[in-house]
Specification:
Layout: H1 2-21, E1 25-27, H2 30-46, H3 48-54, H4 56-61, H5 66-81, E2 85-87, H6 90-123
Helix pairs in contact: 1-2, 1-6, 2-5, 5-6
């Protein structure tokens, strides 16, 4: 639960920052960004695996590149469900999903590395 909550916080901050940077993405406030992150987490858990399963031939044929389209569709679904979040079109959803995945992976990887190095320091004493 603690790990999930940390990922939601990281994703919320990244959603808020990317909405500030990208012109086709709008987030009303930080609370909307938190809701976007929670809904995105739920969509990634429930809907995304079904989309991947149904589009498996296209994903295999494109050597996995079609997964970017699936991610953009999940972002558009998030736009549909969250009222304080707006995505102008598919191409902004695609760009947003790529950048969000990159920054979430970067920050979560940095946090994981920091936590593991702190555990190692504590165990060495």
């Amino acid at each position: 639960m603690k790990n999930w909550l940390l990922k939601i916080i990281v994703c919320s901050v990244n959603v808020f920052l990317l909405a500030y940077i990208l012109p086709g993405i709008e987030v009303k406030d930080i609370w909307s960004a938190i809701i976007v992150a929670v809904v995105l987490s739920a969509l990634d858990f429930f809907v995304k695996p079904l989309l991947i399963l149904f589009t498996l031939p296209a994903t295999i044929f494109t050597l996995g590149i079609f997964l970017f389209v699936i991610n953009a569709c999940v972002i558009l679904l998030d736009d549909y469900f969250v009222h304080g979040f707006s995505v102008q079109n598919f191409w902004y959803a695609l760009l947003f999903s790529v950048l969000l995945s990159f920054f979430n992976g970067l920050v979560n990887g940095k946090i994981k590395t920091t936590v593991h190095s702190n555990k190692d320091k504590n165990n060495s004493h």
